[in-house]
Amino acid sequence: MSFKSTRDYPSSELVQTLEKLGGNVMAHSSRENMAFQATVFPNDLEKITELFAQIIRYPSITEQELEETKFSTQYEIADIDQNLEMKLPETLHAIAFTSDNGQCDGLGLGALCNLQDLERLSTKSLQKFRNIWYTPENIVVAGVGMEHDRLTDLTNK
C-alpha cells in the first residue's frame, strides 16, 4: 500500500512528485520491518522527507487502493505457493516457530498472509494496525551524505 494516496496527495500527484525528484525511491517490506529509501539530490532532501512523512504517517487507505493491492497480493501468494525455492524458507520458518500446542505464534507467521486473511483485510483493520505500529517511537530515520542536524530538523517537522 506504499505510494498510494495520502492526506495531502492524491495517488497520481504523489507519484508525479516522486518522479520529478529524479532520484531512486523505493519501499521494501520483510517479516520484521518496512523500509522506505531514497537517493535524491541534496536540495530535494526536504521534499522527500515531507513525502515520506505523508506516505508513512498519513496514508488515505481507500477501499479502491486496498482492493487493487489485494488483487496483486493474490498473485504474489500464488507465485510463492508454486515456487518451491520461495515456499521452503516460509515453511521452515513456520515450523521453527510453532509452539508445543501446534499454534504458530507471531514469529512463525509468513511474510505474506493466506488468502482467507487477505479477503478479511479491511481499510479499518489496516488503519488500526498502522495507528498502533506506525508511530514516531517505532520509526528510525537514517541518512547518508547529509548534515545530521538538517535531517533531524526535517524529521521533527
> What is the 3D form?
globular
How many strands, which pairing sense, and closed or not: the largest β-sheet? 2 strands, antiparallel
Residue stretches low in confidence (pLDDT < 50, at least 5 long) are none
Listing every helix as H and every strand as E from the N terminus to the C terminus, the arrangement reads HEEHHHHHH
Helical region count?
7
What class do helices, strands and sheet pairing give? mainly alpha
Radius of gyration: 18 Å
In total, how many beta strands?
2
Q: What percentage of residues falls in helices of 4 or more residues?
A: 40-55%
Q: How big a fraction of the residues is strand? A: 5-15%
- Mean model confidence by pLDDT: 87
| Straight-line distance between termini | 23 Å
**Strands of the largest sheet, in order across it?**
1-2
Textual characterization of the structure:
It is a single chain. The protein is mostly helical and 157 residues long. It is 53% helix and 8% strand. It contains 7 helices and 2 strands. The chain has helices at 11-21, 45-57, 63-82, 84-96, 115-120, 123-133, 148-156, and strands at residues 24-29, 34-39. A two-stranded antiparallel ribbon has the order 1-2.
Topology:
Blueprint: H1 11-21, E1 24-29, E2 34-39, H2 45-57, H3 63-82, H4 84-96, H5 115-120, H6 123-133, H7 148-156
Antiparallel strand pairs: 1-2
